[in-house]
Amino acid sequence: MSDEPNPSTGSGRGPDPHAPDPCVPDPAVPEPSVPDADVPAPSAPDPSLPDTDVPEPSTPDAYAPDEDALRLAEALVFASAAPVTARALSQLLPENADADAVIAALRARYAGRGVELAEAGGGVMFRTAEDLAPRLRKVVQIPRRLPRVAMETLAIIAYHQPVTRAEIEEIRGVSAAKGTVDVLLETGWIRPRGRRKAPGRPLTYGTTAEFLSHFGLEAVGDLPGLDELKGSGLFDGTLPAGFSVPEPSDDPALRDNEEPLEQGDLDLGLAPRPDTTEE
Fold first, then answer.
1. What are the sequence ranges of the domains in the chain?
2. For residue range 113-148, what is the model confidence (pLDDT) as tens digits?
């Protein structure tokens, strides 16, 4: 028997039963990973693209004023004698409405028009466009505040027209100041209608179209009646028996107890001259 070493064992002895089998992989040694040809390798993230994995914070939707809110704001600014603030407007709008957004939308609506929404006195108000101011030559005068006696006289004329100065004093129960009727004539709210068919032929007075326009009336018959006056608190206590409020009428036709104004009355400016045509 030959003593040459066995090439498979490297020695003259038989195979070592404890030696690892080269054909069986060792579980303690991890096998190298081989990339799958069908699965592409992950690429580096592009810094220019947004990270879709991080949710963006949600922002509430901006308030868009509806047509009702704009109309309400428009009416408030138009009717108010003083600038309208956002706080004052918010008291009329729904709770979820943004008064500043409504004012901004109304300002945008009137931008470039003849009347624009302008800032004034801590609020907003309608004003004539600045570029049109030089072309408007009519001066609008604010009527002065009338005293109480003038307002009472005006009410008597409105309800009892046609009425004379003496009849006004009789209804009021006191003598009217000398210039009270003259003040009302200057405002353009009353006019001489004619002359009473009575001794002295006193002038009779009635209201004008300017009176209706100033107080927002279509006709003098729209003046409040007795029940409306009571409801508004203008009458306190118990009224005298038989007290009533007359039904006012501004019919320009002369009554049976009136005479037309004469040419001399027209020359004094008590009534407009009749229209004349050139021949």
1. 67-135, 148-266
2. 999 999 988 899 999 898 887 787 665 565 568 888
Q: Which two tokens stand for residue 228?
A: 């409306």
Q: Which fold, 67-135?
A: Arc Repressor Mutant, subunit A (1.10.10)
Euclidean distance between CA atoms 135 and 114, whole angstroms: 12
Q: Which residue type occupies 186?
A: E
Among candidate residues 124, 140, 113, the one with its CA nearest the CA of residue 76: 124
Length of the chain: 279
CA distance 142 to 214: 11
Q: What is the largest CA-CA distance in the chain?
A: 179
> Does 162 sit behind a cis peptide bond, omega within 30 degrees of 0 on the bond before it?
yes
d(CA 39, CA 61): 43
Q: What is the pTM of this model?
A: 0.52
In this structure, which topology does domain 148-266 adopt according to CATH?
Answer: Arc Repressor Mutant, subunit A (1.10.10)
